[in-house]
Amino acid sequence: MTNNDILRRVRYIFNFNDAKVIELFALADLQVTREQVSGWLKRDDDPAFTPCNDKTLATFLNGLINDKRGKREGEQPQPESRLTNNLILMKLRIALNLKAEDILELLSSVGFNLSKHELSAFSRRPDHKHFRECKDQVIRNLLKGMQLKYRGDAGPKEQSKQRRSAKPTTNKKQPTNGGFKWPSI
Fold first, then answer.
1. For the whole model, what pTM was predicted?
2. Contact present, 92 and 58 (Cβ < 8 Å)
């Protein structure tokens, strides 16, 4: 997943407008313009698309933490210049005050099962022997689970799949309770 995908999905999940996104960046001490935000939110094939770098996404997630949990006293943490899926997972976890059970529940709500031990391996230091790299699939499914929980929908693609897979209705006559009975002897 690209940084732009994550920014778009978080914006959609919480129904943030451009002004709110700009406010979140300001909470992390970065001033951005509406044109910059618009460029980051464009589709990848749009000519006005602007790639979102790691530092920008880290700043946005820090602003989300400040918005959801309150701004920390003192100096704000510096955004990471190299952002990994493990850090994105940690920042979303902090912002939404999620426990391990909450994350596992979000993942299982979209049919992605993970053990508590696997989840804790994502939170370890990279030099730890049980550290595990968080793959795009985990982040994608976590965002999908968050969408179900916080927005209450499956998204436009999933809704169209559900409509297509639904059984078509038929005009068959339903059997009644007074159907055929064997004659008693």
1. 0.78
2. no
